[in-house]
Amino acid sequence: METGRDVRLSSDRQALKAQFLAAHGLADAARAPLAGDASTRAYERLRPAGGVSLIFMDQPPSLETAPCPPDATPAERIALGYNASARLAAGRVDAFVACAAFLRERGLSAPQVHAADPAAGLAILEDLGDDLYARLIQSGTDEAPLYDRAIDAMVQLHREPPPSQLSAQGSNWPLLSYDDLALKTASDLFVEWTPRLRALRFDADAVAAWDAVWAPIRARLDAGAEVFCHRDYHAENLIWLPGRPGPAAVGMLDFQDALRAHRAWDLTMLLQDARRDVSAEREAVCLDRYLAAEAGLARDVFLADYAAAAALNACRIIGLFARLTVRDAKPRYASFIPRMWGYLSRNLAAPGMEDVSAWFDRHVPQGARA
Known about the structure:
By secondary structure, this protein is of the alpha+beta class. Helices cover about 45% and strands about 10% of the residues. The protein has 13 helices and 11 strands. A 5-stranded antiparallel beta sheet has the order 1-2-3-5-4, with helices on one face. The longest helix has 28 residues, at about 300-325.
């Protein structure tokens, strides 16, 4: 039930949004809400009279715990909460503004930011349209050219090491590393939340063994954190823009949580998509395309890192979706979990994953892997 304070805060937020739109000549624009995601952000499509449509981003700063200060110790990050431990941006609009500019400067298609008030958590963005990869593929569009361009965009993004700080339109944002603690926070979602959704129990010894088998993998991924990582690079965050050339045909959304990370990370998000099935054949074709463009990479080493990153990411998503289902009462996320178990099984069969696979054999019966 909404309390009087909730109503007042909601009313105040609506007034703030109306003032922001008026200040940018959009007081009379028609407003239509867009479908949300698992975050605390909300979006509307603005249709000004006689003008092109725009996107209105609303991210109330008070709804998130603090992001990670660049100089915070692991203990300080843990004390600050999940966002700081995982090095998530806490929905910060200044992160979105700075990351969007970085992507656009490299010839990639992030939305242009027309106006922003990071302190208020508001921004007006270019509207890239509704042709999400997921929607087009579901309606019968050939997925091959879409995935080819998505790989090409990633290759372009990985061509140069990113700076430690991104700046644009008065917004500065540190580009931190997907480090050991952030990776541990990610993988530990599995042992914390999966038992609350399935008939599982992980005692102290099992949790200690979990940490031990992932520690060398985290160390490899931490050491290889050298490229700009979108972090949520999948078919529901990519928009097909066929009128734009080459990699710019890929419109990118939801990149504000970007970090410096291992170059395999975004590939795992794209090719082991939690929300749609990506075949092993499509995955192999895309990995070959990436490796052909990155001729300096040792294929076997990279593929071993890819399988390890994909396995860790699958565990993260299984735990995250269990949390969304149990804690946040969003049961639709439970329907995605069996797909992630399928990907995880694929990853655990890869060379180098024997210790992690053995942990699952000891602690997670086959009947619980769904």
